[in-house]
Amino acid sequence: MTDLFRFRPEMRFADSGAEALPLYLVTQGAPLPGGLSAAQQAFATAQGFTGAAGSLCLLADETGALAGALGGIGGAKKRARSRFTLAGFAAKLPAGAWQLAGELEEFDLSTEALGWLFEGYRFDRYAEAKAPGARLVAPEGLDAHRLEVMAEAEALARDLVNIPANDLGPAELEEAARALGTLHGATVTAVVGEELLAQGYPLIHAVGQASPRAPRLIDLRWGDAGPEVALVGKGVCFDTGGLNLKPGSSMGLMKKDMGGAANTLATAHMIMALGLPVRLRVLLPAVENAVAGNAFRPSDIFTSRKGLSVEINNTDAEGRLVLADALAAADEEAPDLICCMATLTGAARVALGPDLPPFYTDDEDLAEALAVASQANADPLWRMPFWVPYEGMIEPGVADLDNAPSGGMAGSITAALFLRRFVTETERFAHFDIYAWQPTAAPGRAKGGFGQGGRAICGALSTLFAL
Question: Which domain range does residue 10 map to?
Answer without folding.
Answer: 2-142
